[in-house]
Structure formats: C-alpha cells, structure tokens
Specification:
The protein is mainly alpha-helical. It has three helices and no strands. It has a domain of 33 residues. Helix 1 runs antiparallel to helix 3. The protein starts with 10 loop residues before the first helix and ends with a helix.
C-alpha cells in the first residue's frame, strides 16, 4: 500500500496574497486622497477657486493629479 506523506505549503501564495493586500491598500489610500481633495475643492466658492486660478471644470483633473501624480 502506498501512502503520501509529503505535505508542502506554498510560501509563494502567502507572499502574493500579502502583496495583493498591500497593493489594494495603497490604491484605496490614493482613492481617499482623490475624494478628500475633490470634496475640499468643490466646497470652495467660485471666487475662492478663481483666486487659485481654477475653474469648476478643472476640479476632477486637479484632484486626480494630486492623488495619482498623473495628469488626466
């Protein structure tokens, strides 16, 4: 009778899972920066935005660049 006694654990899976969690956490942090920036900018009056040299149509792009560092 043959039996299998070799039990292996896949350490690579654990590492990939941890890496995935870290990547998701980083993306969520970037999204929170985007939402916080967008909320703060939309709460400003048109006059305050004009003082900053911004128009309401630019707010999403400005928030995106602040969060992700890439011009949309």
């Amino acid at each position: 009778m043959a039996t299998i006694t070799d039990i292996r654990t896949d350490a690579g899976f654990v590492a990939r899972f941890a890496e995935t969690l870290n990547a998701l956490s980083a993306r969520y942090a970037q999204y929170r920066v985007y939402r916080r920036t967008l909320n703060e900018l939309t709460s400003l009056s048109s006059r305050e935005l004009a003082d900053l040299g911004l128009h309401r149509s630019m707010l999403r792009n400005v928030a995106y660049e602040a969060a992700y560092g890439i011009k949309a």
